[in-house]
Amino acid sequence: MEQISSLKNPRVAAWRSLQDRKGRREQDAFLVEGARMVREALASDFEVRALLVREGFDPSFPLPAGVPAWSLPDHVFASVSDTRTPQGIAAVLSRRVRPLSGSRFVALDTVQDPGNVGTIIRTADAAGLDGVILSPDCADLFSPKVLRSTMGSVFRMTFAFPPDLPSFLRSFRGRGFSVLSSQLDGDPFYDRREVAPRWILVIGNEGNGVSGPVMAEATHRLCLPMRGGAESLNAAIAAGIMMYDLCR
Amino acid sequence: MEQISSLKNPRVAAWRSLQDRKGRREQDAFLVEGARMVREALASDFEVRALLVREGFDPSFPLPAGVPAWSLPDHVFASVSDTRTPQGIAAVLSRRVRPLSGSRFVALDTVQDPGNVGTIIRTADAAGLDGVILSPDCADLFSPKVLRSTMGSVFRMTFAFPPDLPSFLRSFRGRGFSVLSSQLDGDPFYDRREVAPRWILVIGNEGNGVSGPVMAEATHRLCLPMRGGAESLNAAIAAGIMMYDLCR
Known about the structure:
Helix content of chain A: 25-40%
Largest interface: A-B, 32 and 32 residues
CATH architecture of the largest domain in chain A: 3-Layer(aba) Sandwich
Largest sheet of chain A: 7 strands, parallel
Order of helices and strands of chain A: EHHEHEEHEEEHEHEHEEHEH
Radius of gyration of chain A: 20 Å
Number of strands of chain A: 12
Strand content of chain A: 15-25%
CATH topology of the largest domain in chain A: Alpha/beta knot
Number of helices of chain A: 9
Structural class of chain A: alpha/beta
Oligomer: homodimer
Number of domains of chain A: 2
């Protein structure tokens, strides 16, 4: 394991810039942190470019021989980490994900809170969905907070990033998919008309909901019952309830 | 409306200390922020002790005549606010909630993340539950972050704070309630045995789940299906899925 001890080392500067969308785009890479995420990355088909280990940290699993590993003193490791109390291990990965495939998807229409995006991916994985579709203005999948919230599901799900979500949905609808828009003025979710075996559930922006052009492509417009005096649900909660029910 | 312009004014110091559990306990009060929360507080049966308004802020609704209101310059208002960009209105309320009543409850067993506690209360309200039971080590219901996450549902739900959750659940079980423990090694949720018309769903700690003594009081131990490779769900997501399904 090679050692790097200076904050000014160009590799360190490059790793640090992976905290920003610009740096990730320029290097076509992203960084995951913590023993669990690194172990899942190594077990996945993602390309691991480098492993970063804090001096004295015991990863509790063998580091693979084929991947360059770097040992960093505390302050250098902390400078590339996004967390306040870094665990002591991170991996640099090529910014590739598994391309969308399957028959049950969730589409995010400008979902901007990183915690919501990550949590929806984690829940989609658990519910049994096959993939996640992200519109251009969603929180960046490769940001530290989104990755953390996925709890490793980013390595197991398939993804698409269409430049134009409405036309993307239209093409799937043409192939027999139901497109379900989750919206506050929708029809009662539990009394919905039959959904095709292949479907896409669309979750809208936290403040503004599903956008007009996306809504126009929907085969179903649905709303969960709101009892009490609550006006709405958190986007990730609504997504979780609907995804689990659709996969029952 | 009286004006206070000094940060050293003893009222200001008292309001500021409502950000901490200790201050809230000593004054038996809490503070809510933002036009929406203040409006809901005024419409509720909570006792509003004071209204705080930033100089120049237009609340867009009439302030009630019977409640003392104070006008504060920017920096003084900011000092009592918990948010980075305060809206400009807040209310000080007596720390009373509506006592538990009804037939469908969610119990939180050491749920410690304020966002989770608030979101579960908001979702319980929307799903149609009647009340929320909090064990002693949960995030404080009256903390700014929990209150914010409830989106006003704190004013509509009923609550209990039993010093000993297991014996509390036992007494409800004795009165014919089903007690449903959500746990990763539970039986399949969707194939559950019949649940009584009156029930309590128990959600456990984010890391450790439902505690042993609480589990021992359960009539049902249930787990949502985990497909894909996901190992667990976020506590608020699991709670949301189960509460909505139980209320269908």
